[in-house]
Amino acid sequence: MRILLLGATGRVGSFLVDLLLEANFEVTALVRDEKKIKVKHDSLTIIKGNTLNHTDLSLALEHVDGVISALNTEGENILSNTMKQLIPLLEMKKIKRFVSIGTAGILQSRVEPTLLRYLSSESKRKSTTAAKDHEHAFLLLNQSQLNWTIVCPTYLPDGPITKKFRIEKEVLPIDGQSISTGDTAFFAFKEFFDCKYSKSRVGIAY
């Protein structure tokens, strides 16, 4: 099985590279700067390109069985604009499985269930720019034919894989305060294959 990894040079993506290779999967990484990939492996194919470029995405999807995205928004709607390019390509190529790293802001609020967390009194965000981009990506996926899952971490400090965390469908686990980059990657990796939360957002926290 070959998996396309987007955001492979990021804090969560770098863990995903290691997890996928350790599990003996073939990995294609589409990156803007290939020098940031420190891993050398026979099963890792690195393609220099941009997720906003239709040609680059189409090339990276050749012979791929599924996609994991750990892309950042970078305040430029990169995530949702990538989804506009990526979703039609996945549907055309009949690549169904897609897992993305999102944000707890796009989970449902516990105190105001009709609202997303970032729009509710639960939110402590000073800026909603990134959350809006994640929301737009979520809406695009929800309208698609893909077998998607969005992993939604709360505060995300750098940290190792402990495999000890809580998850909850569509909402953040009660009193969840943080989750490490390593455990976020580990859950996304497992969920890609387990498919326990198809077409769902999943809150993850300690």
Describe the structure.
This protein is α/β, with parallel strands linked by helices and 206 residues long. It has a single domain (2-205), classed as Rossmann fold, CATH 3.40.50.720. 30% of the residues lie in helices and 20% in strands. It has 5 helices and 8 strands. It has helices at 13-22, 54-60, 78-93, 129-142, 181-194, and strands at 2-6, 26-31, 44-48, 66-69, 97-101, 147-153, 166-169, 200-205. It has an 8-stranded mixed β-sheet with strand order 3-2-1-4-5-6-8-7, sandwiched between helices. Helix 3 links the parallel strand 4 (66-69) and strand 5 (97-101). The longest helix is centred in the middle third of the chain and has 16 residues, at 78-93. The chain starts with a strand and ends with a strand.
- The value of Rg in angstroms is 16 Å
What does the largest sheet look like?
Answer: 8 strands, mixed
| CATH homology-level superfamily | NAD(P)-binding Rossmann-like Domain
Total number of helices: 5
β-sheet strand percentage: 15-25%
Strand/helix succession = EHEEHEHEHEEHE
Secondary-structure-based class equals: alpha/beta
Distance between the termini: 31 Å
Number of domains: 1
* Mean pLDDT across all amino acids: 96
How many runs of DSSP E, i.e. beta strands?
8
What are the segments in which pLDDT stays under 50 over at least 5 consecutive residues? Answer: none
- Provide the spatial order of strands within the biggest beta sheet: 3-2-1-4-5-6-8-7
* CATH class descriptor: Alpha Beta
- Could you say what the CATH topology is called? Rossmann fold
